[in-house]
Amino acid sequence: MGLREWAFTACLPAFKRLEHDLDFDNEWHGQDGPIPIRRHPEEELAPWQAIFLEACRQVGFPSCADTNDPTTTGAGPHSMNKVDGERMGVLRTYLTAKVRARNNLHIVPDTLVRRVRLRNGVAYALEVERFGRVFEIAGDRFVIAAGAIASPGILLRSGIGPENEVRRMGVEPLISVPGVARKLLDHPGVAVFFWPKRRGFSLPSTHPLIQNVCRYTSAGSECPSDMQLQPGSFVPLPDKSFPLVTLAVCLGKPIASGTLRYESAHVHDRPSIRSGLGASIEDQRRIREALMWIGKLARTKEVSNVVNFIYPSTRPFDNNGNFRGPLWQVMGSGYHPCGTIPMGTDDDPFAATCGRGRVRGTRGLFVADASLFPTIPSANTNLPTLMLGERFGEWLRDDVSL
Question: Please, what's the b/e burial string for 193-229 (b: 16 or more CB within 10 A of its CB; e: otherwise)?
Fold first, then answer.
């Protein structure tokens, strides 16, 4: 898309810098980063997770020891930032006590950013609200990293975005940036639910939800390993005496996109989201192809000996393996929202920022979160977002073109 600073070769050093891979030490992995990455070994697998791997072998998927190696595909342990059952997120791995003690870091909790204050396109302050008091925080450079849902709201309330949308919210348009909140990207996910044939098979209190994954390439896709098949060890239902397991799939490169619309400029109002999941005919084709794979896995003796279909029906597939019902019955969000303030080249009319995150038409105002993705990554968005943060941290530290 013309953003050469975001080619994979340019991003790989940041991917390696953020991680401490506990299993692999090679050209694809880092050893000195704050985020530990590990994979569940065979002896740790929940029963449903082990059954899934064997079923994948039976239907012909190759084994894959490292799903973060771009040269591999197939079924194997999911690479996770989870150690001893606990998620090793940014809060505990980056914002350590030592980091919090830095003289150049000041954290102000319980604070809402109402808007960015601009004068002739130059950002000079944040208008914030804390415990009902509204005040300004002055500065000469502001980096918005409020996430793909909240970051565009800050810009719109500041008068930055499509003029008609900004006016509709009751805000005076200051800078026309058509790409702000123009679309919302996400991964569609579909799941089929199963009822275990024997008691004790699904234990929500003890079994990890996901340990394994099968990556494969959908028919006709230009993006390798764009699909993820995953087993879910339990479904968090209120009635724990009704245990269920799932087989699910995530579409990594959807064509359809959703919309994000802020109804007003009130900082406490939440936006309206229309996901658009599965709105593309091609997305529907690939999802139905994925459901056929779920049907094949369900017909293996490894799976059929231990579970029965329960939702969307007890017979969700016809004799040819085609899913019988409408896709909306089994489709939902993959919880990977992004792309609401897309970066792009100067000749892209819908690029809301340049390749370094500077908001078009402004000085001193940047975005540095998953809002920037002009196309959704074909994998979970957690590590790509951390990689983006690593790169912005490096640029800000060295004051490179920011």
Answer: bbbbeeeebbeeeebbebbbbbbbebeebeeebbbbb
pLDDT at position 236 over 80: yes
Distance, CA of 364 to CA of 132 (rounded, Å): 27
Q: What CATH class is the domain 39-89+186-333? A: alpha beta
What is the band of 207 on the pLDDT scale with cuts at 50, 70, 90? confident
Q: How far is CA 199 from CA 240, 244, 313, 373, in A?
A: 12, 11, 21, 45
Whether the pLDDT of residue 401 is over 70: the answer is: no
Mean pLDDT over all residues of the chain? Answer: 94
Q: For the whole prediction, is pTM greater than 0.85?
A: yes
Residue 144 pLDDT > 80: yes
Rounded to the nearest 5°, which phi and psi values hold at 99? -65, -45
Tokens 């604070």: give the residue: 111
User: Any idea where the domains of the chain sit in the sequence?
Assistant: 39-89+186-333, 108-179+338-398
CATH 3.50.50.60 is the classification of domain 108-179+338-398: yes
